[in-house]
Amino acid sequence: MTANPWLVPITTMRRSIGARRQEERVGPVGELRVAESVVPAGAVAKADAILDSVDGGIEVSAVVTAPWIGECRRCLVSVEGELRCEVREVYRPRRTEEGFDDDDDTYRLQPDHLDLQPLVRDALLLELPMAPLCQEDCLGICTTCGADRNTDGCDCSIEVRDPERGASDVLRRHPGDAPRGATT
Ligand SMILES: [Zn+2]
Ligand SMILES: [Zn+2]
Asked: How far apart (Å, rounded) are the C-alpha atoms in residues 7 and 47?
């Protein structure tokens, strides 16, 4: 059985407030998904973390990275990239006098270690794009003829965008391009 790469021993750090330590950890964090954007289950995430022993806990500042894949929201082509985010959280031991608190429980300091995985997962989930694009000006798929406008192009574009046929008729009769023969 291999050791969990996200567990960091903190026993000696806890003894001296002000102590600082750098940890670079790499490993899988399980699948993360937001809509069609996914960090695949087998993907390797990385955390470049600095741990500071502070009053009441351990503050973790980390740069978290992981690969992701998804689907362009307009043309449905697959897209991929790397997520990169910075986080800062304080891990605290559970305080019994305050009763049970879910938030406190998320980044809990165990007597001898802390687990970076929830911090890494939360950071990546926030960073996953909800509606990615393959490129800033992706033209998408024509809803009338189904052509991929990025590669094929088509002629139906303008009328399709206007749901009201009447409105585009009016536009076409704009005085600037009055039909030939029209007089006033
Ligand atoms: Zn696209
Ligand atoms: Zn078309």
From this structure: 12
